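Renewal narrative, Specific Aim 1. Our central claim is that a sequence can be written position by position from structural information alone. The example that follows is taken directly from our test logs and has not been curated for this report. It begins with the structure tokens describing the chain, in the order in which they were read.
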């Protein structure tokens, strides 16, 4: 019942992570971005379908975070445009949520877990009376049901990152942007959160753009992997991932196709470094 309510509220009608060839949720058109005379992004075009999960990999400094900031409306392209559902994104939108690696800075230390999630509900004008049930449901879904009254400082890194994700989902985003969200976490927590995020994306039908340095994480999560090349940042190879969903930490990673993709990405990255 609880999950049904969540999925009903959060779903946007496009079904779960099945890319379609119809209208793009995000359309990136010939985007460049320069800081002064330094060109950081050098002409990126990409369509991302509703419900699709795109993973972005590439060498340090190639512009992954900058690209994500443009998709969030936090950085303005020098030329070209980013469209969300056919409208040019002019700035931050409630339809787009971003999860940062640095969960410590993203959370308000003086608010409890429930208070931090409430922040997103307050921002979208959710009636006060409805908030406790939604907060409870989201915290339960992300495995923090028993920690609603804890402050961020009383929580582990994995719990804080879960909380940041719960807060973003409270925003009911159509697009979830993740900037190396699990980079600072241990392997087991990381795998658990990968599965939780995939589950939530499947329930809500959200479109996800996920930046990672971890090739296996990109394959495990993605429908497509965009390999960015540096100086200036541009799309190199695009790799389709046709592994079945739901994915499974053991079976998916043992799948011969997973191993083939890992080899392919490894070779691409190696070539880009030469
Ligand atoms: N506000 C800014 N002013 C000037 N240069 C910037 C600014 N933000 C980023 N850059 C530069 O843009 C380039 C791309 O940075 P970005 O953080 O997008 O790369 P990245 O691929 O995410 O790197 P990493 O993998 O190390 O996180 C870097 O050379 C960085 O120094």
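The sequence written for that structure reads:
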């Amino acid at each position: 019942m609880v999950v049904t309510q969540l999925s009903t509220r959060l779903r946007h009608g496009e079904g779960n992570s099945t890319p379609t060839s119809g209208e793009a949720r995000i359309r990136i058109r010939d985007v460049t971005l320069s800081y002064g005379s330094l060109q950081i992004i050098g002409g990126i075009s990409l369509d991302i379908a509703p419900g699709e999960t795109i993973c972005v990999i590439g060498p340090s400094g190639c512009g992954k975070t900058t690209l994500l900031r443009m998709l969030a409306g936090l950085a303005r392209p020098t030329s070209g445009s980013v469209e969300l559902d056919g409208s040019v994104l002019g700035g931050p939108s409630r339809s787009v949520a971003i999860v940062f690696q640095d969960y410590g800075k993203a959370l308000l230390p003086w608010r409890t877990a429930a208070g931090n999630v409430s922040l997103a509900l307050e921002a979208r004008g959710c009636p006060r009376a409805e908030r406790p049930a939604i907060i409870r449901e989201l915290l339960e879904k992300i495995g923090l049901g028993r920690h609603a009254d804890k402050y961020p400082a009383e929580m582990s890194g994995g719990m804080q990152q879960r909380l940041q994700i719960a807060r973003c989902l409270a925003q009911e985003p159509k697009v979830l942007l993740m900037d190396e969200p699990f980079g600072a976490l241990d392997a087991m927590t990381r795998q658990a959160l990968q599965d939780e995020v995939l589950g939530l994306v499947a329930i809500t039908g959200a479109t996800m753009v996920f930046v990672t340095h971890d090739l296996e994480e990109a394959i495990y999560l993605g429908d497509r992997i965009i390999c960015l090349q540096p100086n200036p940042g541009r799309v190199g190879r695009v790799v389709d991932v046709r592994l079945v969903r739901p994915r499974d930490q053991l079976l998916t990673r043992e799948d011969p196709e997973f191993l083939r993709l890992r080899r392919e990405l490894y070779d691409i990255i190696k070539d880009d470094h030469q």
